[in-house]
Amino acid sequence: MHPMLTIAVRAARAAGQTIMRAYTDLDRVEVSTKGINDFVTSVDKEAEAAIVYQIRKSYPDHTIVGEEQGENRGTNKDYIWIVDPLDGTTNFMRGIPHFAVSIALQYKGKTEVAVVYDPVRDELFSAVRGQGAKVNDFRIRVSNAQELGGAIIATGFPFKARQHTQTYMAVLNEVFGLCGDLRRAGAASLDLAYVAAGRMDGYFELGLKPWDIAAGDLICREAGGTVTDFTGGHNYLVSGNIVAGTPKATTALVKTLRPLLNEALKR
Q1: Which of 27, 124, 220, 242 lies at a 20 to 30 A Cα distance from 189?
Q2: Can you give the pLDDT at residue 69?
Q3: Are the C-beta atoms of 70 and 31 separated by less than 8 Å?
Q4: Residue 104 three-state SS
Q5: Is 16 helix (H, G, I), strand (E, B) or coil?
Q6: How many Cα atoms sit within 13 Å of 222 on the Cβ side?
Q7: Residues 89 and 40: beta-carbon distance below 8 Å
Q8: pLDDT at position 67
Q9: Are 66 and 48 spatial neighbours (Cβ–Cβ below 8 Å)?
Q10: pLDDT tens-digit map of 142-164
């Protein structure tokens, strides 16, 4: 096993234990608001601290970028860990059992290692660049969906970017008319992992952050999927606008999205 994957797995499982201990007693979880419709709990912070501790034990000089603590700069700028300690905080807060730990490692700007861990189901999705993707110890591949007809497409509502609601609803209306059905589960990292595992055929969402998608992106690509931004380019880690799926489903989604985009979403 790739040594840095070993550390990523160890860190993800440590965070998962922290999260699941709190999940059994949600009344004790402290919740605060970061912004409109954007929450953070004491568990997000504890889980991120557990991840940072595990990484720092082995790689004290690496840089860590986390959702809650921001950039924890190390002396080695080539290695950057991108961490979301609890993707799906709202689900977690409400007792909905669908959330994950997301950890990606970039080396000189390229994602090399990725882990998405669902502690409720004890499913650990992982990938190393060039070596394929797995869930636990089993290889995974995207589905064989060749078109949107009959496809199950995942999405997420732009609840933090409501200025795009009208455009998003137009896209949703168009995609729903073409695909088999839609799903909105509330954790971007798991949406991407589910595409990688063939459980969903495609996925699109706007306004995400790098820690939401960096790990799921590599896992999806290593499982044979295609990942782009809304215009078919590769700027999604910057723009936060992402389309993923089987190669043909992704192409069909981008073709459907593109004519409906407002100017801000074409960047």
Answers
A1: 27
A2: 75
A3: no
A4: strand
A5: helix
A6: 25
A7: yes
A8: 78
A9: yes
A10: 999 999 999 999 999 988 888 88
- Radius of gyration, CA atoms only, the chain: 18
What does the pLDDT read at residue 27?
A: 84
What's the pLDDT at 35?
64
* 200-211 per-position pLDDT tens digit: 999 999 999 999
Q: How far is 113 from 129, CA to CA, in rounded Å?
A: 6
Whole-angstrom Cα distance, residue 230 to residue 256? 10
Return mean pLDDT, the chain.
93
Contact 235, 227 (CB under 8 A): no
Q: How, if at all, do strands 152-155 and 181-183 pair?
A: parallel
Residue 160: partners with Cβ closer than 8 Å, 6 or more residues away? 35, 36, 37, 38, 207
DSSP 8-state class, residue 136: T
| Alpha-carbon gap, residue 175 to 264, rounded angstroms | 20
Residue 196, CA distances (Å) to 221, 225, 251 in order = 8, 7, 16
Instruction: Give the predicted TM-score (pTM) of the model.
Output: 0.95
- Residue 106, token pair as written in the block: 């970039």
Among the listed ranges 155-164, 169-178, 235-244, which one has the minimum average pLDDT value? 155-164
Q: Is the pLDDT of residue 178 over 70?
A: yes
Mention every residue, 6+ apart, whose C-beta is less than 8 A from residue 127: 113, 114, 133, 134, 196, 218, 219, 221, 222, 223
> How far are the Cα atoms of 31, 68, 136, 172 from residue 181, in angstroms, in the given order?
34, 34, 28, 11
Orientation angle between helical segments 165-178 and 247-257, nearest 10 degrees: 130
